Amino acid sequence: MRPLALYTRSRGVPAALVALPVVVLVAWSALHSPWTSLSASLTSLAAVLVATTGLTGQDPELDRSTAFPWPLWRCAHLLVAAVLATASVLAVQQLGQEPFPAAFVVRDTAGMIGLAGLAAAVAGARFAPVAPVLWWAVAAIMPPAGSVTGRIATWPLGSPDDVLTTWTAAVLFVTGIAAYSARGGRR
After folding, report:
1. Within 10 Å of residue 142's Cβ, how many Cβ atoms?
2. Is residue 162 helix, strand or coil?
3. Contact status, residue 95 vs residue 88, Cβ threshold 8 Å
4. Regarding predicted confidence, which is higher, 167 or 59?
5. Residue 10 burial by CB count (10 A; 0-12/13-18/19+): exposed, middle or buried?
6. Which pLDDT belongs to residue 74?
7. What is the pLDDT of residues 79-109, one digit of tens each?
8. Which of 25, 50, 36, 151 is nearest to 101 (CA)?
9. Quick check: 173 and 113 in contact, CB under 8 A?
């Protein structure tokens, strides 16, 4: 139990757990009327940004030099972050009159968690929020497109029953978790 407590404290997880429902509730209350794909996706993005804090410790070299199973801990960190972010958005959206499809929230949260993990592994943990925010911003300003490339680029706002947007999020999720688990937050 002690390694888990040390791991979570060194990464600021307790503070993120306290902030997560507050941020999601504030985002939902600011955006829910009317509840659209844009507001649901932005609420998921807010949850992901809070849930993915602490993707690296204060000293990455110390993390690399220990005989600790870091790939398993990093994988678990992202998986738990994905579950908590998804659950918080789904719980808060039930407060409204018009709940959004759970598949949409799960897809968006999973894809954005994967983007954060991929960004942490490639550019460093402090840049982890940049990838989901930029991809979401591009999707929000792009006009709806019927082409394959357009649907991939705008997956965070795509229809929840669109197979291509779901596969795009799934590939980002798996790639991000694999890269972050194997490499960790780049220094």
Report:
1. 12
2. coil
3. no
4. 167
5. middle
6. 86
7. 999 999 999 999 888 776 667 788 999 999 9
8. 36
9. yes
> What integer pLDDT is reported at residue 61 of this predicted model?
64
SS (H, E, C) 1-35: CHHHHHHHHHCCHHHHHHHHHHHHHHHHHHHCCCC
Closest C-alpha among 187, 180, 186, 185 to residue 82 = 180
- Please state, in angstroms and rounded to a whole number, the distance separating the CA atoms of residues 111 and 109: 6
CA-CA distance, 166 to 131, in Å (whole number)? 18
Contact 106, 86 (CB under 8 A): yes
Residue 58 pLDDT more than 70?
no
* Residue pointed to by tokens 């958005």: 89
Paired tokens of 102: 């759970």
Cα–Cα distance measured from residue 117 to residue 3, given in angstroms and rounded to the nearest whole number? 22
- Two tokens at 75? 């994988």
H helix intervals, the chain: 2-10, 13-31, 37-51, 60-65, 70-93, 102-123, 130-141, 148-153, 163-183
Amino acid code (one letter) for 157: L
Mean pLDDT of the chain: 84
Average pLDDT for 168-172 = 96
